[in-house]
Amino acid sequence: MKTIQELEEIRKRTFETIKVRREHSGTRIVVAMGTCGIKAGARDVMVSIMETVAEDNLTDVVIAQTGCTGNCDMEPIVEVYRPGQDKVTYVKMTPEKVAKIVKEHLAKGKVVSEYTMNS
Amino acid sequence: MKMYRSHIMVCKGTGCNSSSSELIAQNFEKELKENGLENEVIVERTGCFGLCALGPVVIVYPEAAFYSQIKPEDVHEIVTEHLLKGRVVKRLLYHESIDGDRLKPLDEVPFYQKQVRIALRNCGVINPENIDEYIAFDGYKALTKALTEMNSEQVIDTIKRSGLRGRGGAGFPTGNKWEFAAKVKDDQKYVCCNADEGDPGAFMDRSVLEGDPHAVLEAMAIAGFAIGASQGYIYVRAEYPIAVKRLTIAIGQARQYGLLGKNILGTGFDFDIELRLGAGAFVCGEETALMRSIEGKRGMPTPRPPFPAVKGLFAKPTILNNVETLANVCQIILKGAEWFSSMGTEKSKGTKVFALGGKINNTGLVEVPMGTTMREIIYDIGGGIPNGRPYKAAQTGGPSGGCIPASEIDVPIDYDNLIALGSMMGSGGLIVMDDTTCMVDISRFFLDFTVDESCGKCTPCREGTKRMLEILERICEGKGEEGDIEKLESLARSIKDTALCGLGQTAPNPILSTLKYFRDEYEAHIRDKKCPAGVCQALLEYKISDEKCKGCGICAKNCPASAISGKPKETYLIDQAKCIKCGVCMSKCPFKAIAKE
């Protein structure tokens, strides 16, 4: 028999895994998955984001993907949308760089400016 | 549960399931594996999304891309384009869900825009075979709240104040029903769920059971706590195999988690639920007949009083609630009576699920606040009538209900307004009719159903409905006589006053309501031997137009009764005495020269 506390744990844990199905107002991290992006390693970047987000137990983060953003020589490209902030575009991503973005930008809201498009 | 970036929700309600949604789900799983996406993307089989006309339906999150009328062979494109490359496959999207290049959120799609989903809140959103997903969206939280923070009086008071009325047809206040049963002292009481949905055109209970079975179990446990019952029964149609399967799984999971059974959540409260399968008899949806059937007896109504709250199942105090009624209970306990009663009209609170069918573009399930007008349901949500034909009437409440004519299309729909119009809420079946529907024929259809399903216990229902049907059949065959309408009215009144149960008492409603608004159609059938809507075959005449006929003779060649004659290049003629009114000539004529009148 489950206790009320156990029920609450199931609720929290499962909600994290299925919350993408509800309207969402938090952070959204989008990986460009055009042919050029995939060729440049976007899939590894995506997997790394998923793993880091799960490891760090980040809540209110949705991982999505989009097609080619048009900057093919900058791929893999990752965009971060946070409520009340302008979109931040990260370029030439690697799984290692992504881990830092998750830990800094997604978790603490600090933009990792050295990886952005304008740097 | 593992984290997946994308969730593919494949509708496995009865409608989509019958148009190959299982194969679609399997194709997704196969394609995901072939593309190495099986650890990133999950396929979930859900309950009904509501838009049955567009099935099979697939929604992909987090984009909430609404794919409609998907074929198993479309899956490859969705996986390689959308899931692999992030490009939504526009050609497969429901056309109203895109606005130029922008993908509209689901609640901006016209079909969903005016809907408020309470009873259907989890349908299409969770995997109904996974209790954890139900728990994730606040499942079993209301039961926890009731058991730990409230006493039975407070639960009953909340339901009473919410204004929730029975969604099964009669519209009796749910809280009052619970209160009566709670006040009766007895060592054993029962909670029954009426899932014997038998109205032609209604399928909302089935959809709740298929899409969110735990919502019903949880509400029954709360009802058990409120009235002091330890045992519940769900009486469900055996014709609903998916619902039965999911309920069985849900009961097993709830028992495993200790949410049913002894000492629930360690609070000392005991409650368990068993399923009872009905054999598909309409009368078994009537509360007293339903309880006799659970007892293993023949399903026949018994006179009231005694009311079930005093002497119900196995002669013990019993409450019987419909599936949709129960599907509202947990949200009322969680969000409060005021939240619920803020929606709806003065005497009809909350929302109502309607099963839209008939001549309507968006066939399916819609849940709207009480007080929404028929016009909003049909035109704003239902997408209007196919081919732009005019609205003639909507039949509500199934065989116990009646028709809402075009003149009343702007009346806010609630229990009392529908009754004032001569119809009723009933279970919520809503069959839309255009100008090609014959109202006499519709009455005949519903009476035919009632006669078939009458249990035969009381004479007014057994004999009276049969006599009414005979008259209607005669009228439709062109053999109507002066005085038939008066005979129908007199029979209808006697049956209403003398039948034993609610089903018999309401059986004449379709006739009375069509007589009220469409009496001229009855008169045209009887006096002029004409069917104005062109439906009753016996009253139609197929005629060939002098102007349009080119004398090709195709009609004569195809006529199975050799009723058409003529010479090449001259107008052909139909011998009305020989014509069997099959309509083959009309469908074969290349010049549209044949019309039925």
TrEMBL record, chain A:
Metal-binding keyword on record: yes
Q: What EC number(s) are associated with this protein in UniProt?
A: 1.12.1.3
Q: Which domain of life is it from?
A: Bacteria
InterPro entries according to UniProt: Thioredoxin-like_sf
User: Which enzyme class, named as a word?
Assistant: oxidoreductase
Matching CDD domains: TRX_Fd_family
A single Gene Ontology molecular function, please?
Answer: hydrogen dehydrogenase (NADP+) activity
Which keywords, in A-to-Z order, does the entry hold? Iron, Iron-sulfur, Metal-binding, Oxidoreductase
Q: Per the record's keyword annotation, is Transferase included, yes or no?
A: no
Name-wise, this protein is NADP-reducing hydrogenase subunit HndB
Recorded source organism is Oxobacter pfennigii
Record gene name = hndB
Automatic annotation (TrEMBL), chain B:
State what protein this is by name: NADP-reducing hydrogenase subunit HndC
Question: In which domain of life is the source organism classified?
Answer: Bacteria
List, alphabetically, the SMART domains matched.
NADH_4Fe-4S (SM00928)
Q: Name one Pfam family in it.
A: 2Fe-2S_thioredx
* Name of the encoding gene: hndC_4
Give the enzyme's EC designation. 1.12.1.3
- EC category name: oxidoreductase
Species assigned in the record = Oxobacter pfennigii
Q: Which protein family is it in?
A: Belongs to the complex I 51 kDa subunit family.
Tell me which residues make up the 4Fe-4S ferredoxin-type domain.
Answer: 540-569, 570-597
User: What keywords does the record list, in alphabetical order?
Assistant: 4Fe-4S, Iron, Iron-sulfur, Metal-binding, Oxidoreductase
- PANTHER family from the xrefs? NADH-QUINONE OXIDOREDUCTASE SUBUNIT F
GO MF annotations, alphabetized: 4 iron, 4 sulfur cluster binding; FMN binding; hydrogen dehydrogenase (NADP+) activity; metal ion binding; NADH dehydrogenase (ubiquinone) activity
Q: Which InterPro entries match?
A: 4Fe4S_Fe-S-bd, 4Fe4S_Fe_S_CS, NADH-UbQ_OxRdtase_51kDa_CS, Nuo51_FMN-bd, Nuo51_FMN-bd_sf, Nuop51_4Fe4S-bd, Nuop51_4Fe4S-bd_sf, Soluble_ligand-bd
